Amino acid sequence: MIEHLSKKGFTILPDVFSGEELSAISQAIDSSINNTPDFRQNKDLFAIRRFFQAVPEAGKLVWNRNLIRIVKELCGQGYFVVKSIYFDKPSLSNWFVSWHQDLTISVDQKIDSPGFLHWTEKLGQIAVQPPVNILESIYTIRIHLDDCDESNGALRVVQGSHSKGVIRAETMPVPVQEMLCEVKAGGVMIMRPLLMHSSKRSTSERQRRVIHIEISNLELPDGMKWGEKGIEI
């Protein structure tokens, strides 16, 4: 799995969470829904930004012994959470995500620093595209609360594309060797943010609930701080 993650840019691990653990996480989410800006809900999407801050009881449920062991063995030591999002792709969603890389991070303030580009601010969160070495320090952990396959928008990836650095949108090639990443409920997908990925519209009436976590082991330069630095692993 370490080799697959390094060469292909992702790996999938089944049965990291039991059915009872998934139920406890779901209950924590359902009991925390409110109208603050971190909660976004419409017919196409339900999302919770800054998930571990918005649903603090979820932290101890998500970071079980299995997940902590997996992160330490596959990623290494000294990692901490830098972003967490929960999202649900409802059964009637027509949400389509085109091919892209995840190129932005959340920070606490805008500071002019070499290599930090394309600053934006939305709903109180400041985002920026950092230098490549910072993007390469990040692992994305996707915890699946539901079975995820082609019918409800499973991710498609281009294996090995994470090793090509930042690919500008206007020069991004049409993928010819895409792979569908099906994950059962309780399974976890770990991937690198520079891996090209996309998601098609749902064609079934099944939900696709995912907890998206980003971790890094690097501090930011020039007094800049991660916007959501949290749980140390």
Can you walk me through this structure?
- The chain is α+β, with helices and mostly antiparallel strands.
- The chain has one domain (2-99, 137-216): Jelly Rolls, CATH 2.60.120.
- It is built from 6 helices and 14 strands.
- The protein has helices spanning 2-8, 19-30, 51-54, 58-62, 65-74, 132-135; strands at 10-13, 39-41, 46-49, 80-89, 97-100, 105-107, 117-122, 125-129, 139-144, 155-158, 178-180, 188-191, 197-199, 208-216.
- The chain has a 7-stranded antiparallel sheet with strand order 1-12-9-14-4-3-2.
- The longest helix has 12 residues, at 19-30.
- It starts with a helix and ends in a 17-residue tail after the last strand.
- 30% of the residues are buried.
- The model has no long low-confidence stretch (mean pLDDT 90).
Unreliable residue stretches: none
**Main CATH class:** Mainly Beta
Mean pLDDT: 90
CATH fold assignment: Jelly Rolls
Tell me the number of strands. 14
Using the CA coordinates, give the radius of gyration.
17 Å
Secondary-structure map:
Blueprint (H helix, E strand, L loop, with lengths): L1 H7 L1 E4 L5 H12 L8 E3 L4 E4 L1 H4 L3 H5 L2 H10 L5 E10 L7 E4 L4 E3 L9 E6 L2 E5 L2 H4 L3 E6 L10 E4 L19 E3 L7 E4 L5 E3 L8 E9 L17
Antiparallel strand pairs: 1-12, 2-3, 3-4, 4-14, 5-13, 6-8, 7-8, 9-12, 9-14, 10-11, 10-13
From the structure above, extract its key features.
single chain; 233 residues; alpha+beta; Jelly Rolls; 4-stranded antiparallel β-sheet
In short:
The protein has helices spanning about 1-10, 20-30, 50-55, 60, 65-75, 130-135, and strands spanning about 10-15, 40, 45-50, 80-90, 95-100, 105, 115-120, 125-130, 140-145, 155-160, 180, 190, 195-200, 210-215. The protein is of the alpha+beta class. The chain has one domain (about 1-100, about 135-215): Sandwich (Jelly Rolls).
